[in-house]
Amino acid sequence: MLILIPPSETKAVPVASPPVELASLALPELAPVRTRLIKALARLARGRAPAALDALGLSESQAGELAHNRELLSAPAGLAAEVYTGVLYDALELPALHRRGVVTDQLLIFSGLWGVLRPGDRIPHYRCSAGVKLPALGSVSAAWRKALRAPLAAHAGDQLVVDLRSGAYAGLWVPGGNAVTVRVLHERESGGVVSRSVVSHFNKATKGRLTRTLLESGEQPAKPDEFAWLVRSLGYLVEPGPAGTRPDAPVALDIVVREL
Predict the structure, then answer these.
(1) CB-neighbour burial class of residue 136 (10 A; exposed 0-12, middle 13-18, buried 19+)
(2) Which N-terminal stretch is annotated as signal sequence (predicted)?
(3) DSSP state of 60
């Protein structure tokens, strides 16, 4: 089983540690693409601040992010498991899993700058979402869609792919037919009427907790129906999701939550 999750826009800043080693990251054959993106991002950060902030979708109050992007190859790098923070990662508790010896190698974190990372890969603080367009290089997403296609297909092989990504990150790589996508629905009752909706906080927290319990279980479901059975056995309410439009579309599942 291979579990795909998004990154987090909020990140810790590593200190007193060696810089990133591109050859040591997941799928080292992606190093040339990573190098091009890093250089383009650094050039952007060294240019006019208003243009750089606009390209990165940042406000003036976030101008400090440009300083981090200027020094990506020399800045201290920390474990991705510790650099990424925010709701999903707080619920996932990767550092605690590592301390307990829980294996997390089947987890892949998607990134606008790095493509994909393992939790144990070391990276610096950076700011570059999948929706960014870099001068002279163009769309970050387009670069990764091309670069990730063959390496990730080979890496996934015939494993079940559990896709918990959201937004633009889901478009960086499309898994084959042996895959599951998960949507989290928040169910609530008001005036006797039950409604369901996608709520960002519930979605991120539930996906973080789900990933943690999957890793803790040590189970390796090989097919979507085995995954659905496992998730139910872990205490979640699971229902079929919207049917896909392609013959090889991933199986869609909905997880229904009433409270965090």
Answers:
(1) exposed
(2) none
(3) G
Rounded Cα distance, 120 and 122, in Å? 6
SS3 state at 67: helix
**Dihedral, CA of residue 83, residue 74, residue 139 and residue 211, to nearest 10:** -20
Count of structural domains, the chain: 2
Mean pLDDT value of segment 40-67: 96
d(CA 123, CA 61): 24
Q: Look at residue 203 and tell me if it is in a domain.
A: yes
- Say what the pLDDT of residue 89 is: 97
Q: Which residues of 5-34 are buried (b: 16+ CB within 10 A; e: fewer)?
A: bbbbeebeebeeeebbebeebbbeebeebb
Pick the last residue of a domain from 105, 127, 159.
159
Amino acid letter, residue 55: A
Helix (H) or strand (E) holding 212, with range, is helix 200-217
Look at residue 9 and tell me whether its pLDDT is greater than 70.
Answer: yes
- Full-model pTM: 0.95
- The pair phi, psi for residue 246, each rounded to 5°, is -100, 150
Sign, CA dihedral 209-215-218-222, equals: positive
Angle at 149 between CA 104 and CA 138, to 5 degrees: 105
Q: Yes or no: say if 113 and 163 are a contact pair by the CB < 8 Å rule.
A: no
φ, ψ (nearest 5 deg) of residue 125: -65, 140
Q: Percent of the chain beyond pLDDT 90?
A: 85
Calculate the alpha carbon distances from 110 to 26, 116, 160, 234 in Å: 11, 4, 17, 25
Domain of 105 in residue numbering reads as 2-159
